[in-house]
Amino acid sequence: MDKMLVSKDGDVTVTxxxxxxxxxxxxxxxIAKLLVELSKSQDDESxxxxxxxxVLAGALLEQAQKLLDKGIHPLKIxxxxxxxxxxAIENLEKISTEINLTEKEYENLKKAAKTALCSKxxxxxxxxxxxxxxxAILSVADLERKDVNFDMxxxxxxxxxxxxxxxxxxxxxxxKEMSHPQMAKKVxxxxxxxxxxxxEPPKPKSKYNIDIKSAEDYKKLYETEQNYFxxxxxxxxxxxxxxxxxxxxFDDEANHLLMHSNLPSVRWVGxxxxxxxxxxxxxxxxxxxSDIKKEKLxxxxxxxxxxxxxxxxxxxxxxDCPKKKAVTILVRGGSTMIxxxxxxxxxxxxxxxxxxxxxxxxxxxxxATEVSCSLYVxxxxxxxxxxxxxxxxxxxxxxxxxxxxxxxxSGYNGIEYLANLKAKQKKENNPCYGVDCSKEGTMNMMTQxxxxxxxxKKQQIQLATQxxxxxxxxxxxxxxxxxxxxxx
Length: 488
Prior knowledge:
Helix 2 (30-45) packs antiparallel against helix 3, helix 5 (107-117) packs across helix 10 (336-358) and helix 11 (368-382) packs antiparallel against helix 12. The strands form 5 sheets. Strands 8, 9, 10, 11, 12, 13 and 14 form a 7-stranded mixed β-sheet that branches. The protein has a 3-stranded antiparallel β-sheet with strand order 3-16-17. The longest helix is centred in the middle third of the chain and has 24 residues, at 215-238. The chain folds into 2 domains: 3-99 and 363-472, GroEL-like equatorial domain (GROEL, domain 1); 171-319, GroEL. It has 488 residues and is α/β, with parallel strands linked by helices. Helices cover 48% and strands 16% of the residues.
């Protein structure tokens, strides 16, 4: 289910993304802060599985508490958890499957993206969002190096419309409009001048005053300013540029001159966007008007201003950039909260597809992997003759929390469903059986196409175990004295 997070300022966030929830919680407990760091580590490394890693760590700590109550030493528990983690990874390797990622097999990537999206706010449109995520990644991916530059994927959100109207645009979209309403709305074969300097007169660093005592003085000042702007515009025009993108503002007079010189322009473009445009178009960011040269201009097949919705919200689209492929996902939604959550959902889906390209090994979702690992680790515990068997068996029980949670969230009796699931996996020796969350009538996750990346699942188990071991080694908390405390 989703959580509603209310900030001190009254801002509301509705999400079920684990990383977002723990990041926005006002957590003071030092151990809880370690779990926040755990979630961030999973998010930074894999981008998905943040909820699962925190749930698993919590379950391990709960099992550790029971073992401590029995009188088992923390170091023995750590030793047992370490062995159990190795057994779980060993089983992951056994049950993982390599999938083909040829052009005909990109359907597998969509299935992995859909698995990441099925529990999100966009679940009704998961096919559409999964397709967008796969196309976006493949557009910018370097398939030889199996690398994806996320800087070339931009996600923009506009309130209005519905989630189904979310679209992938081949190019860069800037949430701006032309600096003058009478400028051309479309420029083909664009030669782009990218500026990091304002179209304004220079301002002296020291304080100054200008005394205008007559009409002649004002006229002289006006002509000086006009000549300054004309020189600026002329420098741009002579370079062969037919479009200007500027990080800073324009003086009204300069804006008027740009319009009359047939130089469509956009102002107040953010620094990160300027860098992305420069990378994609092959242009150089220019810091001085005297440095504007033909070889420093960027290029694009077409630049156009588009209008979205009934409120005439305008955006600039730069299409077909020659140097680096850049894409923009334009997210639509009925409210700011829905748009923001859809962006977070897309981030997870994009990360999953990126991870699959890097390593095409998969395991099956729906809790199937956790049940399989739990059975394998339990079997190892039965064959262990030392006291470690208690910790290894506790680790196996902790793994069962995820399928139980999935079953309960889907409206089933968690314990009963898990018992049937374990029996089915044991009987048929098939690690593909998981929780039928979508009520499709089959527990076989292979048939349903519910995939998870091998690397992300391995990371989950290892990170949760590491944090649990760290916490178990703590035997005391030392805090600074309160200054108001008597005797300090």
